Amino acid sequence: MTKSRTALIAAALVTALSLTACTSTKAPAQPPATAQPQQQTVPVPEGAKAMLKALADVKADVDKNDAAQAKVHAGKIEEAWMTFEDAVKAKDKTQYQDIEDPLHTIIGGTKSGTSLDKPLLTEQITKLESLLTPLTK
User: Fold this and answer.
1) Does residue 18 lie within any of the structural domains?
2) Cα–chain center distance at 22
3) Residue 119 domain flag
4) N vs C: which end of the chain shows fewer Cβ within 10 Å?
5) Residue 12 lies in a domain
6) pLDDT value of residue 35
7) Is 130 a residue whose pLDDT tops 80?
8) Model confidence, pTM
9) Which helix (H) or strand (E) holds 48?
10) pLDDT tens column, 59-110
């Protein structure tokens, strides 16, 4: 009888604790808000100059067929673009899209870090340079 009684008390205690945990009025813990880094914005001429510098680095890498460095420098082009692309988009959506097209081709063409399509990349680099140069003024 003592064993049955102990087992019954233990089962009641486990059930009570389980029900208490299920019916807790305490609000569930919220995960901490992940702070996204705020993108720094720069004036269009300054951003365009930064893009042209990184673009010159990519051009040199493509000329040397250095795929690994071209990938690194293409990332810097994109970083520079992100600092002023919203200003370009707000001012002229067509110009924005004209810049985005060769930019994505260059980034995609250097992404592997192992091989480069030199004629295509050279063409797109020249196109992007001609689009960015007027923005530096």
Assistant:
1) no
2) 40
3) yes
4) N
5) no
6) 44
7) yes
8) 0.70
9) helix 44-63
10) 999 999 999 999 999 999 999 999 999 999 999 999 999 999 999 999 999 9
DSSP for residue 111: T
Q: Which tokens in the block code for residue 103?
A: 């930019």
- Containing domain of residue 75, as a range? 44-136
Three-point CA angle 101, 96, 89, nearest 5°? 145
What's the total number of domains in the chain?
Answer: 1
Taking the alpha carbons at both ends of the chain, their separation in whole angstroms is 95
Q: What's the CA gap between 95 and 89, in Å, rounded?
A: 7
How would you classify residue 53: left for phi > 0, otherwise alpha for psi between -120 and 50, otherwise beta?
Answer: alpha
pLDDT of residue 131: 97
Token pair for residue 91? 């001012």
* Alpha carbon distances (Å) from 55 to 6, 13, 27: 78, 70, 52
Look up residue 42 and give its DSSP letter. -
- Is the pLDDT at 11 greater than 90? The verdict is no
The residue with tokens 């995609």 is: 108
Q: What is the CATH classification number for the domain harbouring 55?
A: 1.20.120.660
